[in-house]
Amino acid sequence: MHLIGAARPNFMKIGPLFHAIKQNPLLKGVIVHTGQHYDRNMSRGFFEDLGLQQPHINLNIGSGTHAEQTGRTLMSYGELLLKENPRLVVVVGDVNATLACALAAAKLGVPVAHLEAGLRSYDRTMPEEINRLLTDTLADRLWTPSEDADQNLIKEGIDPARIKLVGNIMIDSLEMMRPKIEADRTAKSLGLKPREYAVVTLHRPATVDSGQKLSQMIRILRELSERLELVFPVHPRTKKNLEEFGLWRELGRTTGLKLLEPLSYIPFMNILFNSRLAITDSGGLQEETTYLGIPCLTMRPNTERPITVTRGTNRLCKAEELTGLVHEILENPLKKPDPPKFWDGKTAQRVTADIERMLLK
Ligand code: UD1
């Protein structure tokens, strides 16, 4: 069976699944890395942190437009499928390779399972939403993280027999790595005091590709850094744009704001675990903060993970609302909500049991 990883947010989803599958000698998981993310700190570091050997196969697709990335992955993975003929292709998340590999497999009649199925932002300007919709149409098995995802799929006319609520696999990674995350010294070595700083991550095209929006965001972050220390590991897309729009140097000179290279899983989680709040446009971080009870301000008009707002610590936020909301959070005590059903570190076990039913019956 192939487990497909392409970009940073995929690796912590295939990690626990690969380890769980290994427990059954009748199952064989082969990790296929499409190579959408290739920098050490966006890829290799995650494999090392999650105790994964390097990918068995790397398609080295690299960067490009959506059409290029999707098209190159489709062709390259299609060829690989013809050679390898796996019994099942597992795709995760919502990146371009999720769709491309699901499509290549479906065209060849190879069964496809989608882990993290059913999430919807109902915003088709997000490239990930297109990937989610099409992948879920193609997949034979839809493993969902929460009940709202099941409802979304049923509304789209997907046969309930294909849907299985398994929970949130990212919580498996977090619990699997918790001892190492807690023992890590990244926050300490950066001089960050527990609960006295915010973690910032921004990378979505909608947040960082417009010069006007990005400079407004940077101005607000610089003002905020006078009240609360900020630590900002900068995604390559964001760094490129900050440099292009002439914002990088002034940001680097801001006291109270630490700019970092992207961090691999354990050091990133270490700074998140110790933070007072997160400011982000990421998908995964909304869930991790909910689970950890850390307030999260998501700089987006919508979310495909509404359960993090209704049941968790997440709030959707416009740039101009950020300062007010941060102050509100700082004035109120932290409250840890109960995690949604099956966000318990046992999702990989449930998925593996389902794979056993599918392949070994
Ligand atoms: C992709 C995913 C997004 C996910 C994000 C997490 C899609 C459509 N988007 O967005 O869902 O939340 O990953 O990071 O699949 N780059 C490097 N080094 C790398 C990887 C990328 O320098 O290791 C540069 C690329 O050259 C490109 C930019 O970063 O200029 C963006 O990379 P890309 O893979 O196109 O999309 P992301 O914005 O990372």
Automatic annotation (TrEMBL):
GO molecular function, one term: isomerase activity
Gene3D superfamilies membership: Glycogen Phosphorylase B
UniProt xrefs under CDD domains: GTB_UDP-GlcNAc_2-Epimerase
Pfam families found in the cross-reference section: Epimerase_2
Keywords: Isomerase
Domain of life according to the entry: Bacteria
Limits of the UDP-N-acetylglucosamine 2-epimerase domain: 20-354
Annotated PANTHER family: UDP-N-ACETYLGLUCOSAMINE 2-EPIMERASE
Family membership: Belongs to the UDP-N-acetylglucosamine 2-epimerase family.
UniProt name for this protein: UDP-N-acetylglucosamine 2-epimerase
